[in-house]
Amino acid sequence: FVDGPVGFGKTFLYTAIMAYLRSKGKIVQAVASSSIAVYLLQGGHTAHYQFKISLIL
Questions:
Q1: pTM: predicted TM-score of the whole model, two decimal places
Q2: Start and end of every DNA helicase Pif1-like DEAD-box helicase domain (predicted)?
Q3: Which residues pair with 45 in a beta bridge?
């Protein structure tokens, strides 16, 4: 879990880690709680979509 203010480099860090793991032949799936965060990560999905979590409103 990485937390920090806007502009701290969280997305850059996630992208670098995912690129490194993919270069090693690992399968990487980015999962975030908000759709806004998902748009910033290549191949990302929201947690409820990825894990088929029902959301009852």
A1: 0.67
A2: 1-55
A3: 31
